[in-house]
Amino acid sequence: MVNLLPKITKAMLARYTFLLLLLFPFVLSAQNARLHGIVLHEGIPVPYAHAQIKGTAWGAITTEDGSFLIENMAKGQYEINISALGYRPFSRQVELLEGLMELGNIELQEDILGLQEVVITGAMKETFVKESPVKIDVITHQYLMRNSAPTNLTESIKMINGVQETVACGVCFTNSFSINGLPGAYTAVLIDGTPLYGNLSAVYGLNGIPTTFIERIEVIKGPNSTLYGSEAVAGVINVITKDPGRQPKFGFSTMASTHGESFGTLSFAPKVGKWNTYWGLDWGYSNSFDDSNGDGFSDRIHLDRYTLFSKWSMDRPEHRRFNVFAKWYNEDRRNGVEAFVKNRAYRNIRGSDTYYGESIYTQRAELFGTYDLATKTRMWIDFAFNTHDQNSYYGAALYKAEQQIGFSNFIWNPKAGKHDLLLGLTNRLQRYDDNTVATPGRADVQYIPGVFVQDEWTVASKLTLLLGSRLDQYKNNGPIFSPRLNLKYKSGDWTTWRFNAGTGFRLVNLFTEDHAFVTGQREVVIEEELEPERSYNLSLNYNHIFTMGESQGVLDIDAFFTHFMNKIIPNYATPGKIIYANTDGYAQTRGVNVSIQQQFRFPLSYTIGASFLTSIQHDQVENGQYATQPIPFAPKWTGLTVLNYRFKKLGLTMAYTANWTGSMALPEVFDLDATGKPLETPRPTSSPVFSIHNLQLTKNLPKAKLEIFGGVQNLFDYRQVYSPLVGFNDPQTQPGFSPFFDTAYAFSPIHGRELYLGLRWSR
Hints:
The protein is mainly beta. The protein has three domains: about 1-30; about 30-105, Immunoglobulins (Immunoglobulin-like); about 240-760, Maltoporin, Chain A. The strands form seven sheets. It has a 22-stranded antiparallel beta barrel. Strands 11-16-17-14-15 form a five-stranded mixed beta sheet. Strand 29 and strand 30 (about 465-475) form a beta hairpin. It is globular and about 95 Å long.
């Protein structure tokens, strides 16, 4: 038997070899089917679209002319799926035979409503917008470019109902955004799903995120501290950067305005071995003095801004991720009286006690990455590091600060039946140092470990329950626990209800998150050691997709309620002072957001939204009674309108946007009389209703791979009647150096109508 086995084996191999030789032509022909098509939108090629044979590894990406070719397929019946960012998915049944099959031109429909967008923010993993248990708003890059000429992240966010831009300082015009009436420090900002974190990042780092490398923006309104930590009280803004493998080889864009501003981006996307890479330089410039309101200070910011960025994505088996994104940001931001900024005089007189000006030098470097482990059950690591250097003068006051943050997330995503679990370990090491009493003698160093768990439970086909909790350990505050509950119920094929209950917490660094500390001349008074702010939130969302003829639309309604404990609200009532303390009572915000979007078969789409908000502080007084007052800078209502119409034959798109802002409470500030003493009657403590209207035209020249755009911002030239500055007219001092000088009375634009023109080119 021992000698016979090799003989039998050889005989069998000979037979198998003979059979394979006979069958080889058939095997070869079975793998010789090819599929070709051209993906278009309104006759214009769509590059970097994915063409995939469902249930197989066969697929291709469209080239610059929109064409794709899938080769070496077996004969049979299949379903081909075509997807591209900003477009509705396309699918078709095909029967493949031997040789080449032509699909011809495939027209994609633009997905204005964003129903097919894949998002990651709500549950820290990919899902479709309409399937997410958490309500998420999405703005795509195409949507941004079509409707406005945003130059940074904060300007882009204004396109979402319930989100407003806020201005913290009437001299340097440092801005942030407000969600449901809560200022920017209450919102967590993420880059590709990884937290940016607050302090210096929250105030000075947002303008360094240019829209040119943004693929989409995902926004959650409501607390999400369970997944993203202390800053996610009002909500989460997740900036998804562009996929390097889907970018043109070269790109260039530029824009200039009648306000003396210019912005531009240069980018290229080479392939380096197994890495798809995307490189770019973004810049901004503004240096024109204008004082329309006569307060002696320029009505708009002066700046030089440069951002270098690079993103690398490795081709790995089974679509595993290894992405690295790096950014370096440098900004020279200044404003003040004309003698300070004219001919760049500030470079030699920064810190002057003669000519008031604010000069802010910012340097910032960031690194973000994601790595999928080669495991059967999905596991990955998110990591980030950023360093921030701030060198600023506010009048004669020097403010220097440094911040470094290292962060990692280790996430395990097992599935058990109807349970989709998410378990995470977080580590954050941060160092903060400045020249204020916030860090007396030495830098503040904190190591913040955390753990979170989340269970997305498909209870039934129409019911999904999301349960989560998080525990963070803080050096000075001990453990902080943050639970959440989300419920999604589909009452029909096109109707979804979402309920959310969650908690939030915020550790406050007033020296970096409130500009009143460093700008102006008010004396800062902290009455007590400030405790962390805590909150709980309830919200209910109704989402209904409807059809009207050949059009499709979405009706969305949000009702929300947030209750705060230990809320910190600055008190401006005493002239020359600003007083901080945890409220003895509580604060509440509640309201409703309503929006409707519709996309017609003909080239018209619109978005109409309105938000209604009540934001009240309840201060405890004698005998357990409470005195109530509105929280400043929280509008009672806001409105949003976006209209798009495309003239197909002309290749021209017209976009109109409008933001309405209702009355809001304003700080109690006092102008000065002719002798320099505060008046007995304050300025109005409530703002007027106002609106800002914008119009843009975009001309597409597909053969030249060129877009030309132009428009007007603040079409009707609205300006804030009062100067945002108080005490600028003190006869006893130089402008800006009065003990009553204050920059906080800023609630609307003070610069008027602006025309702009720009172009975008790629190949």
